[in-house]
């Protein structure tokens, strides 16, 4: 096909009947032309022809194997020298501009020469997004020549300006909008409709177009938009789109729903594993450093792909640090990275998660002294607002430990190291770590008693919920010491709750009756009565009846005490009748002793003088 084309071109150019006096060889093609049209347009060809010997002018041959664009570009140059009309497009303008520069077709060799005309058309190309993309893609055909005439930098700058700006504001044409059709199917003039409004364009309108660029050009574009102030979120989104387009292994790790979404808009690349590894390492270096810009899910997928492709240690370390800085945003299913080492010991890569967790703790861990007091269940979830990231990671690690615990190859030191990395204050409840420990004990029944006790030290028995405490008290896999400890703290928590209940009721009664307590200490019955009053609206029927009974008993006790206070002189008779204390020193019983002896009351008795004695509380 090329031979027939060259023959046709030569025939047209030499249609004047003059014999050809110069032959231009470009690759495998030969052009039989005339010297004068070439000399008048090209300074480079003029120098070459002048250097030729004058003996045999009809047989002079020039070899231009290094001309940018090859024979196809030189054909257009030859037409231009013969004043044949040529068509400039975004696909041939780059090679033609570089060829004109190579042949030195400047204004010194003719007004309106090829360099100036191609420059004019290039400026028009730079005003259109799609044409600029096409021109940039053809820069690879001419290699470094496009960079020497600054075509690559100008294309990148034009694309970056448009990517950073609002396309709706400037109405720049983007891919897919060249032929806008009306609802009736007719093409609208200049892409403008007076009846229908164009669909709004989002910030991701340029991601798909630039994903077809080779990575060196794409990297230049990303660096340019970053320098121009494009938001880090948009840069990260573009990098994610480019990675999914050109690294198929990333897409293979998606869930079923994500795979359908990816397959609908992204075509897998045919790059080899070596190319994918090099591309992944380069993309990781371009990811924004700001926290949360790149999703943790995608970072973990990148890390998993890096392990499959055996990426460099620095690449994996960079990904682990990025994941660690935002580990609180991760999901449990994303952390289950299979172990891909040569010496596989465990099913999942525990060491990788340990490194990620250590990096998270180096950022967020702050020493907080834990209180030794007993923690009530209602207080276990309070005061954790400032510890939200740490608490989320604690729950995440506890869930991860429960998932990897059934692995019989998981050694106890690794399990302990991962669990102990979380500080005690980060867990409002220890139910999660208790569940992980229980699963591990079930999967490793051969552990010794000392190892079981050492493992159970990872949890705080005071911070188990009622449900977890009930389960632990009946768990035969736990050491006996731990079971006793669980029961002890449950009883202690119950006593603490009751004491607080009575303390609140006493303060409530004192505030309501500051002068009505006769200066006597309140006993448990009085406290229960007052608490019953406070909780009368929310208690059940049994509670109300018990409170009424206590109220009646305490009222009778108060009446007896008032009588005893009024008749202080009669206290001296009590030790004589009861037989305690010395006669010379009357013993006045303490109020607490009186309260303890309210169960029985003696009948009236006659004294030595025949009078009815005082009713004595026996």
Automatic annotation (TrEMBL):
UniProt-listed SMART domains: BTB
Compositional bias ranges of the Polar residues kind: 596-609
Residue ranges annotated for the BTB domain, each copy included: 20-90
Keyword Nucleus: no
All copies of domain NPH3, residue ranges: 204-493
Cross-referenced CDD domains: BTB_POZ_NPY3-like (cd18312)
Pathway where this protein functions: Protein modification; protein ubiquitination
Keywords assigned by UniProt, alphabetized: Ubl conjugation pathway
Pfam families cross-referenced by the UniProt entry: BTB, NPH3
Stated family: Belongs to the NPH3 family.
Protein name, as recorded: BTB/POZ domain-containing protein At5g03250 isoform X2
Species, as recorded: Cucumis melo (Muskmelon)
């Amino acid at each position: 096909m090329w031979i027939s084309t060259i023959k046709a071109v030569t025939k047209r150019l030499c249609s004047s009947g003059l014999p050809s006096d110069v032959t231009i060889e470009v690759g495998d093609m030969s052009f039989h032309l005339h010297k004068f049209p070439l000399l008048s347009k090209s300074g480079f060809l003029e120098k070459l022809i002048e250097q030729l010997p004058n003996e045999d002018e009809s047989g002079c041959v020039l070899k231009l194997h290094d001309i940018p664009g090859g024979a196809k570009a030189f054909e257009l140059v030859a037409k231009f020298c013969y004043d044949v009309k040529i068509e400039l497009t975004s696909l041939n303008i780059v090679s033609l501009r570089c060829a004109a520069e190579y042949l030195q077709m400047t204004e010194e060799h003719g007004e309106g020469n090829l360099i100036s005309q191609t420059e004019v058309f290039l400026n028009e190309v730079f005003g259109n997004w799609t044409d600029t993309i096409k021109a940039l893609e053809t820069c690879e055909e001419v290699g470094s020549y496009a960079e020497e005439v600054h075509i690559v930098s100008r294309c990148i700058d034009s694309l970056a300006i448009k990517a950073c700006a609002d396309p709706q504001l400037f109405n720049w044409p983007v891919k897919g909008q060249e032929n806008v059709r009306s609802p009736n199917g007719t093409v609208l003039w200049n892409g403008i409709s007076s009846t229908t409004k164009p669909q709004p364009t989002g910030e991701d309108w340029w991601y798909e177009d630039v994903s077809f660029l080779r990575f060196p050009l794409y990297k230049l574009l990303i660096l340019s938009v970053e320098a121009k102030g494009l938001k880090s979120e948009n840069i990260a989104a573009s990098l994610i789109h480019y990675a999914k387009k050109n690294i198929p292994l990333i897409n293979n790790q998606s869930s079923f729903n994500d795979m359908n979404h990816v397959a609908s808009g992204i075509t897998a690349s045919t790059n080899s594993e070596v190319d994918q590894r090099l591309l992944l390492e380069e993309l990781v270096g371009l990811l924004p450093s700001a926290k949360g810009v790149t999703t943790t899910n995608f970072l973990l997928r990148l890390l998993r792909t890096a392990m499959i492709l055996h990426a460099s240690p620095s690449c994996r370390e960079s990904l682990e640090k990025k994941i660690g800085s935002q580990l609180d945003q991760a999901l449990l299913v994303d952390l289950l990275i299979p172990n891909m080492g040569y010496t596989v010991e465990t099913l999942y890569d525990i060491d990788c998660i340990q490194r990620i967790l250590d990096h998270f703790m180096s950022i967020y861990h702050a020493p907080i002294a834990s209180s030794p007091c007993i923690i009530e269940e209602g207080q276990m979830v309070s005061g954790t607002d400032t510890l939200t990231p740490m608490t989320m990671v604690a729950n995440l690690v506890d869930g991860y430990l429960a998932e990897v615990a059934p692995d019989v190859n998981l050694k106890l030191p690794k399990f302990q190291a991962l669990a102990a990395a979380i500080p005690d204050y980060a867990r409002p409840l220890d139910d999660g770590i208790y569940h992980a420990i229980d699963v591990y004990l079930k999967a490793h029944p051969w552990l010794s008693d000392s190892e079981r006790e050492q493992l159970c030290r990872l949890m705080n028995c005071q911070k188990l919920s009622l449900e977890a405490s009930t389960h632990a008290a009946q768990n035969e896999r736990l050491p006996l010491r731990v079971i006793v400890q669980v029961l002890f703290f449950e009883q202690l928590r119950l006593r603490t709750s009751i004491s607080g209940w009575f303390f609140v009721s006493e303060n409530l009664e004192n505030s309501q009756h500051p002068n009505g307590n006769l200066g006597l200490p309140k006993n448990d019955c009085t406290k229960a009565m007052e608490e019953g009053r406070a909780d009368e609206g929310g208690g059940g029927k049994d509670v109300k009846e018990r409170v009424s009974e206590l109220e009646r008993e305490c009222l009778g006790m108060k009446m007896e005490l008032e009588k005893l206070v009024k008749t202080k002189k009669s206290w001296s008779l009590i030790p004589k009748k009861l037989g305690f204390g010395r006669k010379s020193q009357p013993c006045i019983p303490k109020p607490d002793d009186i309260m303890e002896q309210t169960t029985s009351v003696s009948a009236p008795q006659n004294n030595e003088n025949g009078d009815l004695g005082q009713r004595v509380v026996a």
